[in-house]
Amino acid sequence: MTTTIADTELKARHRKMWASGDYPLMVETFLTPLGPRLVHAAGVTAGQRVLDVAAGTGNASLPAAATGAQVTASDLTPELLAEGQRRAEIAGLELEWAVADAEHLPFPEAHADVVLSCIGVMFAPHHQAAADELVRVCRPGGTIALLSWTPEGMLGALFATMRPFMAPPPPGAQPPPLWGSEEHLRALVGGRVDWASLTRETLEITAFKQPIDYARHFTSCYGPAIAARANAALDGRELDFDAALAAFCREWDRGTPEQARFEMQYLLAVGTRR
């Protein structure tokens, strides 16, 4: 695929967005369990060549490397990879780190035995291009394993809440939570992947005492929320954004007055490359 100037500028904005705030803290606070869940579902074993696409801080890459697999963690945002590398060094794990665009992966065809992405590739704006790359870099008979937030779940609702405050999407871009739709995922890969399992599971979050604490966590740590609030501020609507996010977190709280609890649904997809 040819890279245009507009595409280069779009990816630069994406890198800046994910480098803003403190996404590593968000991972530490409640997202850490997702990486090991994906690695276990993918059946990663020692000696396999594993490529983690849109790896972020290595939430799936590190547990994959702990199995003895040969892991490459790739991501568009160097700042996230640097944090992942720091964590790997602390854990005594060895793996490769590569700055890479999920829509233009710098790896040869049939490069990996296992291709992973844990709430990562879903944020590539052009879904078909990213899906084609996942298939291309996986060897025939290899495993593709993806964990994505669902459109019907809490993160799907979050993006719907933020949409009125966000800048218009670029041409051809699709909403990230669509990757959590079984129908959309099947359409993206066509007949190139045999899905062994497509299961919906839930991440339970009890890290926040009150719903407003979660709302504040989003606006201080989560790149998409930070970008949406900054865009809202351009026409003086940042307080409207804050109110909408606070109401959203109250709506999705399943806890008690003393302890908030949230349930975030995701699709866990594991298949074999034809």
TrEMBL record:
GO terms for biological process: methylation. Keywords: Methyltransferase, Transferase. It comes from the Bacteria. Signal peptide: none annotated. Residues 51-145 form the Methyltransferase type domain. GO terms for molecular function: S-adenosylmethionine-dependent methyltransferase activity. InterPro entries: Methyltransf_11 (IPR013216), SAM-dependent_MTases_sf (IPR029063). The keyword Membrane does not apply. PANTHER family: 2-METHOXY-6-POLYPRENYL-1,4-BENZOQUINOL METHYLASE, MITOCHONDRIAL, METHYLTRANSFERASE. This is Class I SAM-dependent methyltransferase. It comes from Modestobacter muralis.
